[in-house]
Amino acid sequence: MVLEQNLSLVKKVNRLLNWGHWFTFFNILLALLITSSFWWSEPLPQTVLGSVYLLVNWLGHTAFLCFMFFILTIFPLSLIFPYQKHVRGLGATLATIGMVLLIFDAYVYNQLGYHLGSASYDQTLALLRAQVVTNLRNFVLIVTLVGALLLTLQIWLSNFCWKKISRLSASGIGQPALALFFGSFMLSHLLHIYADARLNFDITRQDNVLPFSYPATAKSLLARYQLVDLTARAKRQADKLSLEHANRSSQLLSCQAGATESTLLLVTASITAEQLALLQQQGLRSHDQHFAPNNAAEALLNLLYGQFKATADAASALQMIPAWLNSVNATDIQVVNRTPELNSLLPWANTELSPARLNIVFDADFSRHWSEYQQFSRLIVVPLHSENAKFQLAPVTAYLRWPALLSQARQHGSQQLDWLPTLLGSIGCETENRWLGDNLFQPETLPKLNISQQDIISIRKDKMMILRQDGSYGVWSAGTLVPLNDPLNVPMLVDALKRLEE
User: Fold this and answer.
1) Tens digits of residue pLDDT in 296-305
2) Sign of the four-CA dihedral 423, 426, 431, 432
3) pTM (two decimals)
């Protein structure tokens, strides 16, 4: 009697496990449809080997995810609680939850560029909140319909596999399917090992596309955003600085006519104690969370061209008038250089100040000309570059007599790249091109980004992350430059690198 009961239990368990395998197989096919959407957010590989890796990684990794789901849920349920109706119902419910999460992860990845996780919790919550606030009815309707359709499909698949176990087992598709998925899984890992050894970035940049795949590393982020060779990107940026580009784009910058307060951006060297006393006497307020490069050429590229210093040769780019300045009148904007040390870098700048709507003046000894400068009601005084030799981008103290801008700058932080879009926007000038910095009156939610030769620098609130081209990285407190033992923050870097998207 006991033997018969044991045989009956074994048969139940075997049948449930056989059902579970086929139920998982059909869920793999369904999951392949969902995971194919992850590739919509990414550019296709440029090489045959990269395309082969995409295919085998997609097949192998999706199958692996579904099989692990079976091992962790349905398999123990079948052993511990071998009642077919309950196991099939629970299996259908769990599979529905898994597919809903996979669809939601695909949506998050498509919108944000990274997967669900503890590091992206705040961004994911903000994305959900935006959907709920702007379109609550449609959001609830879509989620309900998708969940109901998936649950109905899973229940049908569960019943179909249970009733057709014998026919499915006799069909002969089980072994070829197993060989395909297992072979794809193994081949994708072998190709990835080869790509790591041979620096094949067409493969490694796909590391983090699928959920629970290779974790995003500094190198894979560089490859994904085609920043492995920053020199090539720098050349594309330099084209925007050229006079030839300015001639082709005569409408690069357009300024609205009309009266506006005259504004002065006064750029100086390190501010002396005497100059500081003068600024405080004149009612200028300090802004400490401002970041500047540690060399003059890079700072000038940030300030006057809105560009990064991605190569060591910045001086040649500075010899040419910025394209945006070539398309406006001198009565709207002027650049004046009263610092002899910058004459060789800015040969095209004016030497005399004849106030326009926006004035950018370089003057190391500004206290001598203060009678000319104090007439401006909106005034910013900022050091050209930092004195920090260790960090390419470091905090300096700016001084403002402009309450509205001071409030925005303190709230969001600023860098030299931000002055140009902010000041041009304040006098009604618009451009078709997207600035790399922020208009501080209309700041983006993305982290700050700067590229200094081979280093990518991202700043969000009080955290500064530096990513080097060799794949190493470091995290520091942005205000104090104290090193932090934080891991690579993938969402922060991905969000910052979105500024490079055209």
Assistant:
1) 999 999 999 8
2) positive
3) 0.75
